[in-house]
């Protein structure tokens, strides 16, 4: 042991701290994903008041609900759950209603919204 900070054991302990920090971060992120997943599961089964509260809570950590009403249907962003016939050609291909909201976590899609789409009669 040299006492001047150049001992290999000192360097290894610094790397060990970094490794432990990385492991703790990975564990925290995995636990966050699990909790968000559990919230989405509960949200799908909850009353409207509880849904509102869960959505508010999730939004404080960057998980936001996606309701696509009035947007152009995009199969890469939306899941079609059904169609509604319309005579208004301006509505054709637009989302008439969000059946089940989707969720996005800081820009990363967690779940696409299930929507009803206007189609020409």
Automatic annotation (TrEMBL):
Coiled-coil segments: none
Q: Which UniProt keywords apply?
A: Chaperone
Q: Which Gene3D superfamilies match?
A: Head domain of nucleotide exchange factor GrpE (2.30.22.10)
- A Pfam family annotated for this chain is GrpE
| InterPro entries assigned to the protein according to its UniProt record, in alphabetical order | GrpE, GrpE_head
Task: Tell me a Gene Ontology molecular-function term this record carries.
Answer: protein homodimerization activity
For the biological process aspect of GO, one term held by this record is: protein folding
Name of the protein this chain belongs to: Nucleotide exchange factor GrpE
Organism expressing this protein natively: Lentzea aerocolonigenes (Lechevalieria aerocolonigenes)
